[in-house]
């Protein structure tokens, strides 16, 4: 199947799902689209068992999409830039401390806690999995997804400070999670006994700080270029070139693409390019990237649903999937509670908000893309299926019930 045909079919399917949701389901965009995509995929898998010839026509699109490559190498940069460019940086600065802790320390804690719990939890059911692979699973599933989080927050009733903390955390923790994932995967490939911790620390620092530095430099250059002109077409092209250049250079220099793109987006979005009061290029650019964000969101979640067709063995992992859902919620809760307990004076977060922060920690396409990128191993199917269960549960169940949890918390506060 040719590339143009794949893109055409993907956009047609995305438009159809969006229409069905808007016309009949009327669920929040992201939740409705992935729900429809999952239903179609489940029906396709059922048809495949009855008549493989019919199902082959339905699965051809899913099997021709390189989901991992498309998300990590193409879509991720645009989605992160769009989210960071349109972020409210004034609010983000006010909540910088909790955002920093949740996007760094909490991700590391969640990775370790989930790895330990999953290792011993699966052993209770005679499912034996290497501990280092449990940590690898924790690294790819611990970061919250900025795409899924942003889409769900738009329709939530979160207080402004919590919404800023959750969205800010999701923008930055992908970079930390990706670095952890790469580090653990390299340790597996080279042998855990041969890991050089000093070299690993240098690699971690280079990925993180190098990515941030690259993003700030290219963001500054692009901002100065856009500030000096009023031609909107050129301004859009410059902003697009930043995302692509950051991705290419960061890949070549082995720096963190998510952190580089987010840094560039925050720098450029926080400074107006309007030359005078009558000029509205910056506002138009914000609307352009908001449109890109929403369109790519739709396509991404359609792709997530379609990929289930490629995982017929997912029906064999209901137990491990259920365990993974429970344990990631526990790991998320503890990774917020522990920093808050020891850094309560530093963090402007109330203990009563822990449950909301836990439930709003939605996972998405990035976790699945990382799971799909794993090399062949005895544990790949367990990690991949567990990731699917967690992502689907977090988007559909947590997304649909988040407002109920928020309303319940607000009523408790009023009662007290």
**Total of DSSP H or I helical runs spanning 4+ residues:** 18
Compute the gyration radius: what is it? 21 Å
Q: Poorly predicted ranges (pLDDT <50, ≥5 residues)?
A: none
Largest sheet: none
- Helical amount: over 70%
What is the number of strand segments?
0
CATH topology: Na+/H+ antiporter like fold
Structural class: mainly alpha
CATH architecture: Up-down Bundle
What's the CATH class, please?
Mainly Alpha
Average predicted local confidence, pLDDT? 88
- Helix and strand element order: HHHHHHHHHHHHHHHHHH
Walk me through the structure.
This protein has one domain: Na+/H+ antiporter like fold (Up-down Bundle), CATH 1.20.1530. It has 18 helices and no strands. It has helices at residues 3-25, 29-50, 52-63, 67-85, 89-94, 96-103, 105-123, 131-141, 146-153, 160-190, 197-227, 232-253, 257-269, 281-306, 318-342, 354-359, 365-372, 380-415. Helix 6 runs parallel beside helix 10 and helix 8 (131-141) packs antiparallel against helix 10. The longest helix is centred in the last third of the chain and has 36 residues, at 380-415. 45% of the residues are buried. The model has no long low-confidence stretch (mean pLDDT 88).
């Amino acid at each position: 199947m040719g590339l143009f045909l794949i893109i055409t079919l993907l956009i047609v399917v995305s438009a159809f799902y969006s229409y069905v949701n808007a016309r009949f389901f009327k669920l929040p965009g992201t939740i409705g689209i992935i729900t429809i995509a999952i239903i179609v995929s489940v029906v396709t898998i059922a048809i495949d068992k009855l008549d493989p010839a019919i199902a082959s026509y339905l699965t051809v699109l899913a099997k021709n999409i390189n989901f991992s490559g498309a998300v990590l190498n193409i879509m991720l940069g645009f989605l992160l830039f769009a989210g960071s460019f349109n972020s409210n940086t004034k609010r983000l600065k006010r909540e910088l401390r909790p955002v920093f802790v949740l996007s760094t320390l909490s991700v590391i804690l969640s990775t370790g806690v989930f790895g330990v719990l999953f290792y011993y939890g699966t052993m209770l059911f005679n499912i034996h999995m290497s501990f280092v692979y449990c940590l690898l699973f924790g690294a790819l599933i611990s970061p919250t997804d900025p795409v899924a989080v942003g889409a769900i927050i738009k329709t939530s009733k979160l207080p402004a400070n919590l919404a800023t903390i959750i969205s800010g955390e999701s923008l930055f923790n992908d970079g930390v999670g990706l670095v952890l994932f790469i580090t653990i995967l390299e340790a597996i490939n080279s042998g855990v006994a041969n890991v050089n911790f000093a070299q690993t620390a240098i690699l971690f620092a280079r990925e993180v700080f190098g990515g941030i530095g690259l993003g700030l430099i290219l963001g500054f250059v692009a901002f100065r270029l856009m500030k000096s002109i009023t031609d909107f077409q050129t301004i859009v092209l410059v902003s697009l070139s930043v995302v692509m250049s950051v991705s290419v250079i960061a890949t070549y220099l082995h720096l963190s693409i998510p952190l580089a793109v987010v840094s560039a987006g925050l720098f450029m979005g926080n400074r107006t390019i309007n030359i005078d009061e009558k000029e509205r290029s910056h506002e138009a650019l914000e609307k352009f990237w908001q449109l890109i964000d929403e369109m790519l969101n739709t396509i991404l979640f359609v792709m997530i649903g379609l990929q289930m067709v490629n995982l017929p063995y997912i029906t064999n992992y209901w137990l491990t999937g259920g365990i993974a859902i429970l344990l990631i919620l526990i790991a998320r809760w503890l990774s917020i509670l522990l920093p808050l307990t020891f850094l309560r004076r530093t963090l402007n977060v109330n203990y009563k908000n822990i449950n909301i922060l836990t439930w709003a920690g939605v996972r998405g396409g990035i976790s699945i893309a990382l799971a799909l990128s794993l090399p062949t191993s005895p544990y790949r199917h367990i990690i991949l299926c567990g990731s699917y269960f967690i992502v689907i549960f977090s988007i559909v169940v947590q997304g649909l019930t988040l407002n109920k949890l928020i309303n319940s918390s607000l009523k408790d506060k009023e009662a007290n």
